[in-house]
Design brief:
- It is a single chain.
- The protein is α+β, with helices and mostly antiparallel strands.
- The protein is about 35% helix and about 20% strand.
- It has 19 helices and 21 strands.
- The chain has helices spanning about 5-35, 35-45, 90-100, 105-110, 125-130, 155, 165-170, 190-195, 195-200, 240-255, 285-290, 310-320, 355-360, 360-370, 375-385, 415, 425-440, 475-490, 545-560; strands at about 45-50, 60, 75-80, 115, 135-145, 160, 185, 205-210, 225, 235-240, 260-265, 270-275, 330, 350, 440-445, 450-455, 460, 470, 505-510, 515-525, 535-545.
- It has a 5-stranded antiparallel β-sheet with strand order 12-11-21-20-19, with helices on both faces. A 4-stranded mixed β-sheet has the order 2-10-16-17, with no helix packed on it.
- Helix 3 (about 90-100) crosses helix 4 (about 105-110), helix 3 runs antiparallel to helix 5 and helix 12 crosses helix 14 (about 360-370).
- Residues about 35-45 have low confidence and may be disordered.
Length: about 575
Amino acid sequence: MGLFHQKRLVCIFYLLVILFLPLVFHLGVIQLVHGNEYKLRALEQGSIRVSLEEIPRGRVLDRHGIDSLTQGQREPRVVVFPEIIQAKEEASLLLSQVIRREPEELFRYLNGEAGFLPFALTKGQVRQIQELNILGLMVQEIDYRYGPKPLAAHVIGHLGPISDRSLLERLNNLEGKQYKLSDLIGKSGLEYFYEGVLKAGEPVSMVRAHVDVYRNLIAGLGIKKEEDRDTGRQDLITTLDGEIQRAVEEVMDRRVERGAVVIMDARNGDLLAMASRPNFNPGNVALSLPGDHDTFLDHCTALYQPGSIFKVVVAAAALEEGMVKPSDTFVCLGEHDHLVRCWHKPGHGPITFEEAFAQSCNPVFAELGLKLGAEKLITYAKAFGLESQKIIGYPVSRDPRQDLDLIGKPYSLVNSSIGQGPVLTTPVQLTAMINVIVNGGMYIEPRLVKELRAENGQTSRHFSLGNSHKVISSETARELKRLLGLVTTQGVGKEAGIQSYGSAGKTGSAELAGNTDRVNAWFCGFAPMESPKYIVTVLVEEGVSGGLTAAPVFREILEAILDHPH
C-alpha cells in the first residue's frame, strides 16, 4: 500500500473518531451523569409502587430529639395493587367479611389506584387477611404523620394541597425538591416555614410490584418491600419539651376554652411549651374546624392588652430611676379616684408602694406613669422586649399594630400605665419580660428551634441561643422578684401560690370592648421561688379576673411539671 493510501486511511480514521466523539461523550454523560435517573425511570415504568408513609416528610421533634410532636404512629393497613388483583368482586366480598365494610365500597378501592385502605385493623383482622392469600392484596405497617392528639398544633401548623400551577413552579425551585400537584405542603407554622427542608423526595419505605408491559406480575420478582435511607428530608429539633407540652395541654383541655399558655426555661430563654386554644388536629384539618375564624391563630404570638402585668414595667422603671421606694405611701380612692378608677371600688385608702404592687392598685401606677413620663416608659418597655416579635427559629410575620410609641400620644399615658389603651403585647413577650427579673435584669431573646438534623444524624444547621442585653440593675431585679412574691403570698394572686416550692408573679385583667362582665385574664410568673426553673404565662380569654381565672391554671400547670425531672 502506497504512502498516499496510508495517509488517506489515517485521515479517514481520525475523521471517524472526531465524528463519533460527540456520540461517545453523550453516551458517557447518559451513563455517568444521568444513569441513575434513567435507571429509576425504567424501574418506575416496569413496576407499581405504594408508599408506606402517609406523608413522606421530616419529623418535628421536641428538645430531646426523641418525642415527635405530631405524635405520629405506625398502624397496619391493607395495601392493594388493583392491576394485579384478578377476581376483584370475589376479593371485595372476602375482604368485606373480615373488616366489616360494604363490598361495594371495597370494590371501588380495588378498581382505583394502588395504595392503602384507610381502615384500622385489629390483630385478628390482620391474621385473617393474610390467610386470604389474595395476590395483589397484603397488610403492611403504615407510618402516619399525626396521631389522635398531636402536641403544639398551632406551632407545628398544618398541611394542605398545592392550590395552583404557579405555586407548583415556585415550589419546584425550592431546595431542589420535586413537587406534584397531589402533594401536601406546609400552610402554617413550622410546617410552612421549613417546607423546603422537611419535604422528602422519596418515602423511607415502600412496596413495589414488578410487572411486565401487560401489567402482569413478573415471576421471581413479585412484590418486594424496599427501604431508602437517603430521602432528602431533614428533622426539625425544637426547644419544646414533650412532657411539659403534654401536661400543659391536658390542663388547658380542662380549664381553658380560649387562650394561651407559654413556658420558658428560666436559664436560657428556650420555649418549653406553647399551647393555644381553641385547638385543632392538623392530621384532619377539614374535620377539626369548629367554625371559628381564628382556629388556626397561634394565640401565643397574637397581640393582646396585657392589663396589670404591664405594671411590672412601670414598677421597674420607677425603682430604677429612683422615683419610688417600697415603703412610699400613696392614696387610693377606688372608683372615685381622679386619675383612673381602681378595681377595688371602695378604694385601698393609704397604701404603700409594695402593697399597691401586691394588690394591683390602678391609681398608684397611673400616678407613677405620669411621674415617669411617656418617653421613659416607652424606653423601658422596649428594653423589656415588648416591641420585639422575634422568636429564634420561628419567623412569624410582624404585626404592625404593636407600636409602643403610641403611649406618647395625648391622653394615652394613664391607661397605658395600667396595661390598657394602645399597649399591646403577646404571651411570649410577657414571658420574656418576667424572665428579665429572674435573670438579674438581663433580657434574653426567646428561642423555639434548636437545630435541623440530616438523615445521617448530623446537625445541618444550629440555631444559637438568643442575644441578651441589660435592662435593669440586679438590685432592681432582686426587689421586683420580692414584690412578685408578695402577689402570691399576700396579694391578688394567692391562687397561684405553690406551697412546696413557692411561686411569684403578676395578675392581669384586661378589659374587653363592649363586655363589662368579662376580661382577658392573665397570670405571668415563675417557680420555684428561690431557684426559678420555669417562667409561665397564662391567658384565659373572657375570664373573671387574673387572680380568679388565670392564677389557678398557673398553679395547676406548675404542680404538674415541678415534680417531674426534665
